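Figure 2 data, in text form.
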Amino acid sequence: MFKKKSLFIIPLILLLFISSSCDKNEFEGMHEGVIKDLTGLDSCSYIIELNNGTNLMVTNLYDFDVAIEDNKEVWVRYESVEIPNMCICGEVVTIDDLQER
């Protein structure tokens, strides 16, 4: 009887160990935001509006495997860049990582 239980318990313990070692901080350092369509404004396109109200004007928005559409919720990691932009409604950035929420 003990042998049958151990054959069940050992794989279960291994499975729990493996699943607990997965990267739980996948979104660490990322910000919650929403893609917004501002194409109706002069020289503007899509931006990302962060939950804190900051608007990001992205230089490489289409470089990621995320459908770019109005009101899509995303996680974003970015860096500020010094590039002039005609649409002056936010900070110009380059995205390091973009994922759907």
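Caption note: The mean pLDDT is 83.
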